[in-house]
Amino acid sequence: MLQVQGLTVAYGPVTAVRGVDIAVHAGEVVALLGANGAGKTSTLNGIVGLAPVTGGTIRFRDEDVTGLPTERLIRRRLTLCPEGRRVFTALTVEENLRLGGYTKGRGRAFDEAVADMYDLFPILAERRRQLAGTLSGGQQQMLAIARALMSGPELLCLDEPSLGLAPQIVEQVFELITTLRGRGVTILLVEQNVALSLDVVDRAYLLASGEVAGKGTAEELKASQLVEAAYLGLH
Ligand code: ATP
């Protein structure tokens, strides 16, 4: 579904990602793991058109989408749920969902998508008229994911969904990832919670200093020293 080859992302003189190759197949959940500053967010942002790609190619569903603006990628069903929850705090829950579903217009498809999100996240249905800024951190994270899902992505890029959440809520986020996979959403996940990630993903790539330092199935990575090495900068 996604083939990234030789991806390079640079912010002016700072090269954050260097020649990264990643493949994600339909139906998979794949993680990008690595220490702070390893280039995980820059890789995701490069894929979705939010960071400057200075080299490499990105193919999505057999088409070259390198350099396409984020908005066009969303219409092609490649959507990012960014780090830090970034919900519109001064808008209601439902207004946030509406913005996420703008590609669906205002007709039946939109209403169905909202109803589907309320099925998946009953707490959001209860709070539909509440301002997003008054939700708890965990509820805001659920809203951010629901908003991204409103565009009907085939590939959802999820950046650090468990960051800053209480342990119980973190578990709910990982359960949700499993639920989404059951619904046929393919997921590329950036996470700092390695142990929980390796319980829900099929495969993972380890990034270190902007390069792929290792990769494998969740089982292979659990059994190897590669993960520790990447986090300790020993690759
Ligand atoms: P974290 O988990 O801390 O977000 P990460 O693995 O996602 O880390 P990135 O955020 O992609 O890493 O950062 C990779 C490198 O690029 C770092 O050295 C960072 O300082 C640099 N960087 C990231 N964003 C920018 C930017 N907008 N301008 C300049 N340098 C940046």
UniProtKB/TrEMBL annotation:
GO terms for molecular function: ATP binding; ATP hydrolysis activity; branched-chain amino acid transmembrane transporter activity. Residues 2-234 form the ABC transporter domain. Keywords: Amino-acid transport, ATP-binding, Nucleotide-binding, Transport. InterPro entries: AAA+_ATPase (IPR003593), ABC_transporter-like_ATP-bd (IPR003439), ABC_transporter-like_CS (IPR017871), BCAA_Transport_ATP-bd_LivF (IPR052156), P-loop_NTPase (IPR027417). SMART domains: AAA (SM00382). Pfam families: ABC_tran. PROSITE patterns: ABC_TRANSPORTER_1, ABC_TRANSPORTER_2. GO terms for biological process: L-amino acid transport. Belongs to the ABC transporter superfamily. This is ABC transporter ATP-binding protein. It comes from Kaustia mangrovi.
